[in-house]
Design goal:
- One of its GO terms (molecular function) is isomerase activity.
- Keywords: Isomerase.
- One of its GO terms (biological process) is negative regulation of cell division.
- This is Topoisomerase II.
- One of its GO terms (cellular component) is cytosol.
- The chain is built from eight helices and three strands; from the N terminus they run H-H-E-H-H-E-H-E-H-H-H.
- The protein is mostly helical and 241 residues long.
- Among the domains are: 40 residues, no CATH class; 109 residues, no CATH class.
- The protein has a three-stranded parallel beta sheet, sandwiched between helices.
- Helix 1 runs parallel beside helix 2.
- It is globular.
Length: 241
């Protein structure tokens, strides 16, 4: 799996998914990493609350800045994961202050027994503080969406290229949902009805109300007199009615 393969995969996935997450692992020198960095809008750097973990994450940022990704480093987020309330580790506040000078934001995620098990993630099994930390991380990631969309020309804040009215179709769906169409003979939403067209709530003459039984062809409407009966001609030999 090389750089070209990654770019081709992102091109295909980008037609169906507006957000794509790539777990690049700990390596920076494998062939696909060039495509990962070139196509990334944001980076999330993970650090443990230890001297080695913080040093490794800081070295990663140094390497990125030295290889032409300084802007990406400034937009990146650092997550200090697995922070225990008790333990012989360096002061977490010092790590936070260090990365706040280099990144756009820092999030501290407390240690969670459910996540440490490595099984399927169940949000209800996570500690409330852990869920709150990941919610904060998601909010920080979303703050950069507008900049990325404007940079790619998807939409601008000046109204010349507004955002789409509908979300992109889900995988397996075709096109966008169609707007609701009026019933035949009714005006479009916001359009005044033409001459002879009933207003909203008025019955169209001759139109049957749903659930109402239609009148027989020779039965008058409510409040209308019965038409005068005309005598029917009698045939010879037929009894009188």
């Amino acid at each position: 799996f090389n750089d070209e393969d990654y770019r081709r995969a992102i091109e295909v996935l980008g037609k169906q998914y507006p957000i794509i997450l790539t777990d690049s692992g700990t390596g920076l020198l494998y062939s696909a990493m060039r495509g990962v960095l070139d196509l990334a809008d944001q980076l999330i750097i993970i650090s443990t609350p230890s001297v080695d973990g913080a040093s490794s994450a800081s070295t990663t940022l140094d390497w990125l800045s030295a290889h032409g990704y300084a802007d990406l480093v400034q937009r990146s987020l650092t997550v200090i994961s697995g922070v225990r309330e008790t333990g012989k580790m360096i002061k977490v506040d010092d790590i936070v202050q260090h990365f706040e000078t280099r990144c756009r934001g820092v999030v501290v995620v407390p240690f969670d027994e459910h996540l440490a098990a490595g099984a399927e993630v169940d949000l209800d099994m996570m500690r409330p503080k852990t869920r709150e930390a990941y919610f904060h991380l998601s909010a920080l990631v979303a703050e950069d969406f507008a900049r990325a969309q404007q940079q790619q020309g998807l939409w601008t804040g000046d109204g010349q290229n507004p955002p789409p009215q509908f979300a992109p179709p889900m995988p397996g769906q075709q096109g966008y949902p169609a707007a609701a169409q009026p019933m035949p003979g009714q005006p479009m939403p916001g359009q005044q009805g033409g001459p002879g067209q009933p207003a909203a709530g008025q019955q169209v003459p001759g139109q049957q109300i749903p659930g109402q039984q239609p009148y027989a062809p020779q039965q008058p409407g409510p409040g209308q007199p019965y038409p005068q009966q005309q005598p029917q001609p009698q045939h010879p030999g037929q009894p009188q009615q």
